[in-house]
Amino acid sequence: MLELIAEHVCHGGVQRFYQHLSTVTGLPMRFAAYLPPQALQANGARVPALFYLAGLTCTEETFAIKANAQRFAARYGIALIAPDTSPRGANLPNESEAWDFGVGAGFYVDATEAPWSKHYRMYSYVLDELRATVLSNLPVDGMRLGIFGHSMGGHGALVLALRNPEVFRSVSAFAPIAAPMRCPWGEKAFGGYLGAARDAWRQYDASELVAQRPVRFAAGILLDQGLADAFLATQLNPDVFEAACRIAGQPLTLRRHPGYDHGYYFISTFIEDHIAHHARALGCT
Question: Which candidate among 9, 43, 115, 157 keeps its CA 20 to 30 Å from the CA of 94?
Fold first, then answer.
């Protein structure tokens, strides 16, 4: 049962917030959905959609409030879907003790280690349950889906797209954790959720995935990275992903921006370019 929590008119469309009981996580989950004006017409037309995955500590509200994406989604006629970043209310031991693990830090993986494996299954939640819920309840065209995200969510978007190119036709990211097996955030999350065997981590590392598979996105992947990002040197590793794409022959546009940091001032500056990138791939231009 999908429950509408709030609705706000925005750029001729509507910004909505929903809640539903997830069978994948076993807990109530919330997500944001922006429907552009084209989705509200009486002819019942279905519109393409972009799934946006947010970063550490964020919620389903963060992107909708801070990115200023709705104006461009309205221009191209694209819906925007943004889930929460983890299950909430599991009440697991030490679940809220760290900002980079547990609540607000699901890392878009399916946990295999107890006690996390019962609820922390964000990969399957986004790919299967959230997508099915959106397609069943909203006027979205399931054959025209893209995915993008920021930081932890950029990692999630790259992994979901690379593993499921038959589902997501386009992908981009802002300052993604591009090689999580090589950084403290990724090692902490993967060790906690997936266990100590590093071979099990590879399925959730975008740099590993793109190097091992044939070209998935012939039209290219778009990444934006701020050079004043405090996490660039220790956590993000865009150079590793760039090298892996080069070896695999995967077209990549990696733009490096002097002066920009890791936050939503950076994202809001370049959000139009990302929506346009997806619009071209999804046939909206």
Answer: 157
